Amino acid sequence: MEIDALNAELGIADRLRFTKGRGGFTMIEIENAFATATITPYGGQVLHYRPKGAADDLLFVSGRAHFTPGKENKGGIPICWPWFGPDPAGQGRLIHGFIRCLPWRLSACAELEDGATRIRLRVADDDATRALCPCAFELGVEILVGSTLSVSLTTCNRGQDPLRITQGLHTYFNVGDARRIRVLGLEGCRYIDKARGAGDAPIVQDGAIRVGAEVNRIYEKAPARLAIEDPVLGRRLRIDTRHSRTCVVWNPWVEVCREMEDLGDEDYRRFICVETVNTASEVIEIPPGQAAHIGAEYRVESL
Ligand SMILES: O=P(O)(O)OC[C@H]1O[C@@H](O)[C@H](O)[C@@H](O)[C@@H]1O
């Protein structure tokens, strides 16, 4: 649908409008009493969220993100599905699945009684997805833009066989300087250190996570309450997860950042990914006709 038609049909006066953004991508721009936010139906991806009065965005989006159909966009909250990480079948399919590179359909947008804004987007299997993964599914994301940002992903198995997935909200948090932050909540958890190569024995997290080299870890049995303390931006980002048993913490550091065509050379300082995930041994099996969920709520607090 064209932008004018979208605005006429689904826009909400002074609250929600559709625009053309980077790469000509359709954007949903929200401004309510609590916050401003931008969501693109491409990948069902939240790109920006800033509470009213806050100086800085919750999320990082790379200035070199592709915004090209068929490619992933680096930043915001990419949805990784039906696999998280490299192609589990080793067939060279996209890292983190294909759903973040597909246009989703807007199924509802509404202003709630408390003034928050709710967006629902959906995507289902078609010939193109079945060529990549022979499963029948319907995926829905619900995004609540209020005093907090909440993202909930629901997978419905529409097929005749059990559906096995891994999945994640691959959130890129905007930070003042990654070298000065602390990630809290994973103390004492065991993690697989992917920066040191697969197959390493799990290591136990000793204290808060700090970034002084490449960090690429899968934490097992992750608790539901996490936080990022950012002394440079003077804030604490709270992350409350739902139905997620693993947490990936990723910062590419200098070399990997320079190798990534969709990051600027110094961007490793500007973000940390703390990802709400079910991966590694946490494969989810969904019986036919049933659904599985994963979600997270993000809150910005002053330090
Ligand atoms: O696909 P993106 O958004 O570039 O993210 C890639 C990174 O995603 C992280 O989740 C992985 O742990 C890293 O190994 C990977 O490099």
- The total domain count is 1
Order of helices and strands: HEEEEEEEHEEEEEEEEEEEEHEEE
Mean pLDDT across all residues, rounded?
Answer: 96
CATH topology description: Beta-galactosidase, Chain A, domain 5
The assigned CATH architecture is Distorted Sandwich
Bound small molecules, deduplicated:
6-O-phosphono-beta-D-glucopyranose
Runs with pLDDT <50, length 5+?
A: none
Helix-residue proportion:
under 10%
**Content of β-strand:** 35-45%
What is this entry, summarized?
This protein has 303 residues and is mostly beta strands. It has helices at 3-10, 127-132, 253-259; strands spanning 16-20, 26-31, 35-40, 45-51, 79-80, 105-111, 117-124, 137-145, 149-157, 163-165, 167-169, 172-174, 182-184, 190-193, 203-204, 215-220, 225-230, 235-242, 246-251, 271-278, 284-286, 291-302. The protein is globular and about 55 Å long.
